[in-house]
Amino acid sequence: MSQFFTQKDTIMFEGPDATSPLAFRWYDKDRVVFGKRLEDHLRFSVAYWHSFTWPGGDPFGGETFLRPWMHGSDPLALAKQKADVAFDMFRLLDVPFFAFHDVDVAPEGATLAESIDNLKVITDIFAKKMETEKVRLLWGTANLFSHRRYMAGAATNPDPDVFTYAVGQVRAAIEATHKLGGANYVCWGGREGYETLLNTDMKRELDQLGRFLNMLVEHKHKIGFKGPILIEPKPKEPTKHQYDYDTATVYGFLERYGLAKEVKLNIEQNHAILAGHSFHHEVMLAFALGIFGSLDINRGDNLLGWDTDQFAMDVGELVPVFHEFLKGGGFTTGGLNFDAKIRRQSIDPDDLLIGHVASMDACARALIGAARMLEEKGLEGPLAARYAGWDSAESKSILAGERSLDQVADRALTIADPQPRSGRQELLEGVVNRYL
Predict the structure, then answer these.
(1) Closest C-alpha to 142, from 187, 98, 178
(2) Residues in the active site (predicted)?
């Protein structure tokens, strides 16, 4: 067992009156809400990268956390130490899942072959730990954006050797994910975009990305990996424009390259905001298009214009999102992955636990409220009334393609001046507030 945290026992549910920051007030994992245990609804996952790999730096200052596994002469030994701390944290939080990038868990070697060997060592360690631990792998992925070689992208790189290297890295990552029983495999195109159109052939790059993902899907089936491939939309940062801009953009891309039946989305709140949307918008659209997969649960800062990856704490924002989530059927293979960082001034080890506990409680409280709102038809009733006219036989025949434009236009001549009805926005916002 790691000696990193002062907390030694698994964090428990103590109820709404609990005052300890290391006790759950709302997340009672066995509480049944909307026909399912909270743990099974929320499927919480700890993100390996922000929790154990990020040193606390920002664009204007370096490391603040001084993690012991980040300093030493033997990278593989440090990776093993980091794994001990990670699995201790999974136990303390009693989470069902975790997620990782390849380079989060294993050091890069001098060659791709050496990097893959290092990943295999850590994968074997994870597999051994998972034999006696509850935690399972929500998803794995390859980091195709941090290394210098990927400064101009991975799949979209102008150099085919870089493309090829990325394919080798992804094959190792999805095979490690498969070996560990991962439920999904994620692709985040951090640098699959452009900084200037003056040196960019956009059609070529999109075709490269389409072929890259098709090869990944082909290999998934070859090795028998059953989970979906997930794309994580983000509009910009670090590039000026990324090809996986938002839910609608990715859907168009998937249709264009024949991937819509194979690939779903991993949606993040902070990325939605950067795209000029709400988290609610992106989740609703993904369900509407049939490509909802999983969620990275975090938030941005409304006063800052970049991806701050803070822990989700705003219950008011989350209730409508979880209402949409429950209405759409919730997760199948996905989960709530904490792609979130404690602030760089939160330097105590237990701050890492506290951030997760507070956000898990916020999510649980929001889901409980959303379930009540759905059961009581707080929004569903007014929504059904708003579109009730489309339930008539004549309206249904229009949408079913049984009426021509002439027929519909002729009918319009028989209708008196249609009058608008109130959208009742303020009433509905008040309804949501009743369930916070």
Answers:
(1) 187
(2) 101, 104
